[in-house]
Amino acid sequence: MEDRPMTIIEHLEELRRRLLFAIAAFAIGTVVSFLFVESILRVLIRPVGSVVFLAPTEAFFVRVKVAALAGVLLSLPVVLLQVWRFVSVGLTPKERRSTMSLLPFSLLLFLGGAAFAFFAILPVGVRFLLSYQTEALVPMISIGAYTSFATAFVLAFGLVFQLPVVILFLARLGIVTPASLARGRRYALLGIVVLSAVLTPGGDVVSQAMMAVPTYLLYEVSIWVARAFAPSRPRQESLPAD
After folding, report:
1. Short-list 194, 188, 197, 180, CA closest to 216
2. What is d(CA 143, CA 69) in angstroms, rounded to the nearest whole number?
């Protein structure tokens, strides 16, 4: 039996099925995370030591928010699998192999960037910001404000660490080349500095530098990765006119 193109109704039915799987995975991940939310919060607030809550409902809703974010992380492999199964139907075998080879690295880089931010960068940034306290300025950090700050910080690093995957994908499509990436180092450095200033929620120079430096190193790694794994294109030389 030959494969036939799916109708729009079949595509919508497949999309609904994949969404249900993804939502179920997220719901299960959130429920499981809520059972361990106290332990997660203890780890999360370790860089600041102690926090307060300023409204009667703040402590409860922060627990729900943290459990939901942890649920997203737990369900991420399942969600990516559902996205892949829906999208892969319309890809050629070559495109499937190319994309499938990038997905595990993308997930590992995201988790690695998030872990690097939380365990290495966030404590330094928090200590720097808290160093501005004086006798008249005593820090009283609310749990809601701090969790928003910390999660934005961690997610920003996770997204930034996708740079090698994005560049390799563009190189495989022929949109960029290792030579053009090498020539654009100065512009890339400027863009990275601006991006770091936008993405770091603290706004301090130390946090921006601690994001900009590893991001630029990732850019250099991306050039090497594109040179090693992107398909090389034959150089087209202009022929002399007769």
Report:
1. 188
2. 15
In 47-148, where do the E strands start and end?
none
Q: What are phi and psi of 47, to 5 degrees?
A: -60, -25
**DSSP states of 6-25:** PPHHHHHHHHHHHHHHHHHH
CA distance 195 to 211: 9
CB 61 within 8 A of CB 147: no
Per-residue pLDDT band at 92 (split at 50, 70, 90) = confident
Structure token pair of residue 79: 């969600």
Question: 154: which 2 tokens?
Answer: 């961690």
CA 188 – CA 96 distance, rounded (Å)? 30
Q: Backbone phi, then psi, for 142, in 5-degree steps?
A: -80, 150
Rounded Cα–Cα distance for residues 220 and 148 (Å): 31
User: Has this prediction a pTM greater than 0.70?
Assistant: yes
Contact assessment for residue 163 and residue 218, using Cβ atoms and an 8 Å cutoff: yes
Nearest to 202 by CA among 53, 47, 91: 47
Instruction: Please name every residue paired with 52 in a beta bridge, in sequence order, or none if there are none.
Output: 142
Conformation bin of residue 204: beta by default, left when phi > 0, alpha when psi is -120 to 50:
beta
CB of 219 closer than 8 Å to CB of 163: yes
Please choose, from the candidates 148, 151, 131, the residue with its C-alpha nearest in 3D space to the C-alpha of residue 70.
151
Percent of the chain with pLDDT over 90: 33
Residue spans per domain, the chain? 7-90, 92-231
Q: Where are the alpha helices (DSSP H) in 36-92?
A: 37-44, 58-87
* Look-up of token digits 């059972």: 35
